[in-house]
Amino acid sequence: MDNNNSVCSPENNNTFKNNNNMKFNLATSTTREIINSPSLLNHNIDDIIKKLPITSDIKFGLWIIHGKKLQKFAKIQWYVVVYGFLSLVFSASLAYYTGTITTIEKRFQIPSIIISFIGVSNNISQLLVSCVLSYYCTNGNRPRWMAIGIYIHLFGCLLALLPHLLYGPGDEAVELSKEYSDLSSNTKNIKYQVMQKFICLDNNTTKCHELNDNTTSKIIFFIAKFLSGIGGSLLFTLGVSYIDDNVSKIDAPKYASITYFIRLLGPGIGYCLSSFTLKFFIIPAYNVPTEDPRFVGAWWMGWIILSILLLISASIMLLFPKELPLTVARRILSKQKYNNTTLNNNNTTTNKSTSFNDMLKTFKRLLKNKTLMFNNAATICYLFGFSSYAMFMPKYIEVQYKQTASTSALITGIIYLTFCSSGLLTAGFIISKYEKIIKARHLTTWNIIVSSTSTICMLMYIVVGCTDNDKQIINMHNNNNNNDMLNCNKLCNCDYVSYNPICSEEGRTYVSACHAGCQNVTINDNGSIKYSECSCVLSKNINNKIGSKGTAEPGSCQVDCFLKLCLFICILSIVSFMATSGMATNFLISIRSIDEIDKTAALGLGLTITTLFAMIPSPLVFGYIIQINCIFSGKTCTGSSNNCWLYDTEKLRYMFNLTAAGAVAIGLCFDITTWHLVKHVKIFGDESSTCDSEKTIEEEER
């Protein structure tokens, strides 16, 4: 090889010379020093990539883990795989907490209002740190900052496991395990003892239990969720901007959609993991049946699995360079084609100075960007309405359509894994395929269609409610508040009897056998249960006198909600597909309506304001709507209400869906305004012939 044409000539293991005798240290040289070398000009992009020296900015590895063999992983395809998996595990951990939240509430006797506050603590931390972190971390090695964020989240996961290590399974679980450890074939007597707690006994009142002081556990859970918000802020603001900076504008939507698609698989996996772990007793060595109302699942088990996966994936992310070699090669090619113009702009972005005053100027500049702010306002309204369904959908299906908790979670998970994921992926590939004809107004038009359709569908949710279930709930409420009914069970002392519904022979559902005044319970040889001597139930037996005490069986009386449930699922599937497809279009409008220098800061600002005005207030508002529609709840020893057992389903359906639809309708107005403002916004810009070279090289690399 001719020395005059060689890019570098080795002097030692850490330095090289270019044609102008400029020395570079491989451990400390910056990308700017390398690409300013004239010897790298007048080459095609393939030659430039091959001749690029492995500097600290583009080196794949850390400490002793590096080398030429590992450098082949410094490609956008590998980054998307690692980032996608990392996002998946992170999302799965958030869903796992949600899936085990009722078990944690039961184990540590934490009131629902405190559980709700703990649930939004990660959003609070995002609100506090996302803007600052996204600004100051922009100029550093973003993959390493993301890895640090995941390590922080990992610490939060281990903290969530800590209450179990400190306090164990609890005294009640230990007593329950002893009860079943000596169990032989005499299950009938055990079952009879359990059923005795639900019937009307004049000489034996149900005792209440004082709540234990678990302040330490509450604080630990709050800190754990708070730390996860910090990790999420770094992961999602820096991760997407890293993709956008390291691929062409044409390919950015495709890669972003792939990572979003993988991320959307996480909640489904998290719910499945929680379902799996909660099948085990909190002390796995004992085989306690899940049918026992005192059963507490092994909520702690999943945190071990998730922590291991987070540790592995974060450690791999730590190895990625500040910039990918292909990105540096593009800038060198831009220099020789555009006489340093593009290079100088990119250098400004890469080496922008950071200071508090500059940060204030940056955010002031972003706040004055009308297109960005109106698009963010539409996002806030949309998230406010849809966050309610994302958080409470299993509960909504369970309450409205008389489904079990497992069936409700399964329906939610299937829709999440299929329609939500496919909607986002489809949008990304369509945008990439038709990038030559797609304009900014095309994207905002789709956002308007999505908002309009979602508003109509949310109103349709009201129509497809199960009226038979509504009538049954009202009858149950009337049965327990009617004066005659109060007289028939007033000696039963049912205040502290838990919700265990029964169906009377006259077709009415009661909260429990105690509330129906049933004084006897019989367990047949086949295991079936029958309550008798129910003073609130009129007997239909022709051999008995009219008005004599009747019988009942466990469980609510059957209502047919199948057809309405199918209609609801169909509408929900359509809305889920369209809603997630709008994420890709909304993202593109946000990052293309600002200067390249403000990209990461804009994402951090967007995360902050959506958290402040949507992600934090939405769960609290809709949780309040659910709570005020409670018509029957348990009582504690202090006389305060405990968890809710019955809801006014019709009133809840109207208030819940009208509030969500109203929020999305307001967002529709902001989408229309955004449509008027994006006329001059270029989604893919004036792509040069460099894009063709990039695409050719990327295809060869694949």
Please explain how this structure is put together.
It is a single chain. The protein has helices at 31-35, 45-51, 68-71, 76-99, 101-108, 112-119, 121-136, 142-167, 171-181, 187-196, 215-246, 252-277, 301-317, 325-338, 341-350, 356-367, 370-401, 405-433, 440-463, 467-479, 483-488, 562-592, 599-615, 617-628, 649-677, 690-701, and strands spanning 9-10, 15-17, 23-25, 502-504, 509-510, 518-523, 529-538, 549-554, 630-635, 641-647. The protein has 702 residues and is of the alpha+beta class. Among the domains are: 3-71, no CATH class; 75-186 and 211-322, MFS general substrate transporter like domains (Growth Hormone, Chain: A, Up-down Bundle); 467-554, no CATH class. The strands form three sheets. Strands 5-4-8-7-6 form a five-stranded antiparallel beta sheet. Strands 1-2-3 form a three-stranded antiparallel beta sheet, with no helix packed on it. The longest helix is centred in the N-terminal third of the chain and has 32 residues, at 215-246. The two termini are 29 Å apart. Mean pLDDT is 75; it is low at 1-29, 339-351 and 687-702.
